[in-house]
Specification:
The chain is built from 16 helices and two strands. With about 350 residues, it is an all-alpha fold. It has two domains: about 170 residues, Tetratricopeptide repeat domain (Serine Threonine Protein Phosphatase 5, Tetratricopeptide repeat, Alpha Horseshoe), CATH 1.25.40.10; about 120 residues, Alpha Horseshoe (Serine Threonine Protein Phosphatase 5, Tetratricopeptide repeat). Strands 1-2 form a two-stranded antiparallel ribbon. It starts with 13 loop residues before the first strand and ends with a helix.
Length: about 350
């Protein structure tokens, strides 16, 4: 299985390394990527430094937004939006960070606006328009947390867990994630699920992790969709269901999750949980390979070298093998194919690989 990793709107706390949980049929794999440690045997779990989330476009405090219901909490009724809040976020979106800072400061001081406080935390944490100051970022996030802002809860949780601005405090971070998830924050639900999967900060509980992932996936979080797909494939925390797994992979793939693109491509290639569609699979493999997925590069190499559902293109296939091997995805069968290639084919493949890797 490919690692679970963050995407644009969902910043992940943990990242699981490893190879795809599905493979082209000629190279079966039996590794269990979600073993008790939450990682496959070939790569360790990694902890990433978390970038705080961007405030939502409405940038209103929870009472003024309409959060979706979390798995164990009912959504609060929305209140009328404050038209002035968009001025802060609009400046932020345009890169006018100093203006956003000035507007947010005024709103935070005069109106006790939680969303403005969260914005100030974001600006201080990421040195946007002001000098980076984790202490002030934490102060503003905490003030917003005290007013019930779920985005601030998530951002502060990430800082506590990553140890930015102070000692690492995973337990405090987990509590903040739980509070944010209860208020309907999908990113918090996803990261809380990872903690339940990992079983270090929280007791390992795949059923609870699946509930949280389902909430985040239903909210459109592609990383959660991919993670939940692996649960349905393995029957972990949920009843095994390849059809649901592939549907989730499809959704995450459409949203641009590279790991999901690889897994969905393999499902399409093999006809597992979906109709067989080799042209679509090849298109997705090419897309993921160009995004530097070593697994996609390896699978694409097999397809091209051996003409599996596509015309044989040995030079291009061997190029992708060399590129994937450079990234740590070796393959003895393809090594043999490279050794048996003609000197001209080998030279062309190596030249193409060097060009892709930017090596002169």
């Amino acid at each position: 299985m490919t690692r679970l990793r963050p995407v644009a709107i969902a910043v992940s706390l943990l990242m699981f390394g490893g190879s795809a949980f599905a493979q082209l049929q000629l190279t079966p794999q039996t590794a269990d990527p979600l073993a008790k440690t939450g990682k496959p045997p070939d790569k360790p779990v990694k902890t990433k430094t978390i970038k705080p989330p961007l405030p939502k476009k409405e940038a209103a405090p929870p009472a003024k937004s309409a959060p979706a219901a979390a798995p164990d909490n009912k959504a609060e009724a929305p209140a009328p939006d404050n038209p002035n809040v968009d001025l802060v976020y609009g400046a932020y979106q345009r890169g006018m960070y100093k203006t956003a800072f000035d507007l947010a400061t005024k709103r935070a001081q005069e109106n006790k606006d939680a969303a403005a406080m969260t914005m100030l935390g974001e600006l201080y944490a990421n040195a946007l328009g002001v000098k980076r100051d984790y202490g002030k970022a934490i102060e503003w996030y905490q003030r917003a947390v005290d007013l019930g802002d779920r985005e601030a809860m998530f951002a502060l949780a990430m800082m506590r867990i990553s140890g930015r601005g102070g000692p690492t405090d995973s337990a405090a971070g987990a509590k903040l994630l739980a509070s944010s998830a209860k208020l309907g924050e999908p990113k918090a639900a996803y990261n809380l699920a990872l903690l339940y999967m990992d079983g270090q900060t929280l007791p390992q509980d795949f059923k609870r992790a699946a509930e949280l992932l389902r909430f985040a996936a239903d909210a459109g979080n592609p990383e959660a969709q991919y993670a939940l797909a692996t649960f349905y494939k393995e029957g972990r925390g949920v009843e095994k269901n390849l059809y649901k797994s592939v549907r989730l992979l499809q959704s995450a793939s459409v949203a641009g999750n590279v790991d999901a693109e690889v897994e969905y491509a393999i499902a399409l290639f093999n006809g597992t949980g979906t109709d067989k569609n080799e042209p679509a699979a090849l298109s997705l493999l090419r897309k993921a390979a160009r995004q530097n997925s070593a697994i996609a590069q390896n699978r694409l190499a097999h397809v091209l070298v051996y003409g599996m559902g596509a015309p044989v293109d040995k030079v291009n296939g061997l190029k992708w093998h060399i590129v994937a091997k450079t990234a740590g995805k070796g393959d003895l069968q393809l090594d043999e194919a490279l050794a048996q290639a003609t000197p001209e084919e080998r030279e062309k493949a190596q030249a193409a690989a060097r060009k892709w890797l930017g090596i002169k």
